[in-house]
User: Fold this.
Amino acid sequence: MEHVLLKCPQWDTERAELISSLRTNNLKRILTTKSGGKAATRFVQRIGILDQFRTVVEQGREEQEREDAQEREGKEGKKRGED
Assistant:
């Protein structure tokens, strides 16, 4: 995990996104926090090194889309309540 997440030059661009979103390059923090774990999982899925888990990736995307939609709905509802 350390090599893929933090060292492999093949994934420099994707890694930059991971690190900037989490604001850390500490492997322990990445793998032991909820946000870090989710980000690391998305990173691994995005680069496709575990292609045998494609179904899990697709399910994860669907779940993320649902979570994003719920978050947007919550923000819109809160905004309407403020008006």
